[in-house]
Amino acid sequence: MITFPNAKINLGLNITEKRADGYHNLETVFYPVPLEDALEITLSKSKEVPFTLHPSGISVAGELNDNLVVKAYLLLAEVFDLPPIDIYLYKAIPSGAGLGGGSADAAFMLKLLNNKFQLNLSTEKLEEYASRLGADCAFFIQNRPTFAEGIGDLFSPIQLSLKGYEVVIVKPPIFVSTREAFSLITPCKPKITLSEIISRPPTEWKELLENDFEKSVFALYPTIRKIKSELYSKGAVYSAMSGSGASVYGLFAPKTPLPEMEFSNSFYFHTCLD
Predict the structure, then answer these.
(1) Domains of the chain
(2) Cα dist. 223→56, 214, 226, 260, 266 in Å?
(3) What pTM was estimated for this model as a whole?
C-alpha cells in the first residue's frame, strides 16, 4: 500500500507571546501544496525485526530509527499487534525547509497503517496520535487549509482556496536553526488579525501578511532575503518564507505564465495549486 505525503506552506506566521513553559504561542495558516514524498509499506518476509526502513531520494540527516515514520509505527505498535513491515520512503520534500515534510510523513504513516491493518481509528484519534509526534503533525491528518494557534497544535478549519495560483518554492542550501530563530524573536500581536488578512485576496497580502521569523533570519542569511526579492521581481503577487525557513515561496496569479527563473544550487519546485 502506497501514499504520497505532501508539503505545506505557512501563510503568515505571527509569534504572539512567550509561554511560561518556554514555548511560544503563534498564529499561522497551514496550506497544503502538492510537493510530495512517496511512502509505501509491505509485509516483511523477515520475522526477526519489526520494521526495516528503506530510504531513497533526498537524503535525511540522522539515524534511520529517529525518522518520524518509524516513530509513527512504534507509537501504534505500543497499542496494536502490528506485523513486521518494510517501509519504503522516497523523499522529494527537502528537510529543514519549513515545509513540514517530516511531519507529513509521520501523519501519512499513521493513516497508512490504519488503512492497511484495519485499525478503525477515527480522525480524532489519528490526530491525537499525530500530535504526540510533533506540533504540526496533526494538520496532515485532514490535510486542508487550517488556522493554527497555540504552539501550532490548535486547529480551526478555514474557507480559503488558492486554486489556479502557481506556487514556486525555492530552498537554498542553508540550514536555519529553529531554536535560534525563536531566540531572536520579540513576540508581538499583529495590528491586523491574521484571519482578517487571509480573508482578503492574495493581491493585497504583500504589505499585510508577515512571517515574524523573516526579520532575524534574513539578517543572518541574506541569500534567503534575495530569493524573496527575486520572486517579487519576477511577478509574484505574494512571497514569504515558510515556517522558520529556509524555503521561500511565491504565489503567481492564475493563468500568468511563469517567467524563467534560475536559483543556482537551490531546490526548485513549481506547480499549479488545486
Answers:
(1) 2-157 (3.30.230.10), 166-272 (3.30.70.890)
(2) 28, 12, 5, 19, 11
(3) 0.94
